[in-house]
Amino acid sequence: MTRVERISYWAWTAIFLALLVLGAATSRAGDLRLTWNDGGGPVADGYRVYTGTASGNYGNVDVGMNMVHNFTGLPDCQDNYFAVKAYNAGGESEFSIEVSTYPRPVITDVTSSQAGAHTILGNNFSVAPRVFVSAGGGGFVEVDSEDVQRLSCGELRIPDVPMLQLKVANLALPTGSGEPEYVFSQPWPGPVNLTVE
């Protein structure tokens, strides 16, 4: 087996992608952090990160040996597709599993109506966002998905529930096999120290 074949096999089976949020100080619409690991395969000389707004139709950036890349200025309110290739002197690997998601959701305001509902305003709320609320002290609890109405990419409505904070998560779907990830907004109101779950 040649070195190119070895790295090709290794990357296809062992580069795992994860989508994480950027820290609270840098969070804004169009941002996303992509991380991956090499799975312990052949030594790579570096990685190329591929992204585009259509599956398999990518531009790329060489990130060297970094296994994290921060994206800024991604198109809002649409799926973005991501994959990674490893490379060394023997050549370039196959693509990792592709992952697609909206950029990180951003909450700008929450209002309450007399009709007993909260309206969440912001940007990059995907087609099936998850909403989590915290009444304090007990962590975040997910609002039943049937109770989350997506009115637009920038507006959600949930029932009137007691809350001190809330956050929104977009699902990041792998196009092949693999576990889905979630891209979380910064908790609102902020600034708040953000943790990745």
Key structural traits:
elongated; four-stranded antiparallel β-sheet; mainly beta; single chain; Immunoglobulin-like; 2 domains
How does this structure look, described?
This protein has 197 residues and is mostly beta strands. The protein folds into 2 domains: 3-101, Immunoglobulin-like (Sandwich), CATH 2.60.40.10; 106-171. Helix content is 6%, strand content 46%. The strands form 3 sheets. Strands 3, 4, 6, 7, 8, 11, 12, 15 and 16 form a 9-stranded antiparallel beta sheet that branches. β3 (46-54) and β4 (57-64) form a beta hairpin. The chain is elongated and about 65 Å long. The chain starts with a helix and ends in a 13-residue tail after the last strand.
Quick structural overview:
The protein has 197 residues and is mainly beta.
Chart the SSEs and their pairings:
Elements: H1 3-14, E1 16-20, E2 32-37, E3 46-54, E4 57-64, E5 68-71, E6 80-88, E7 91-92, E8 99-101, E9 106-112, E10 117-123, E11 130-134, E12 141-142, E13 149-152, E14 155-159, E15 165-174, E16 181-184
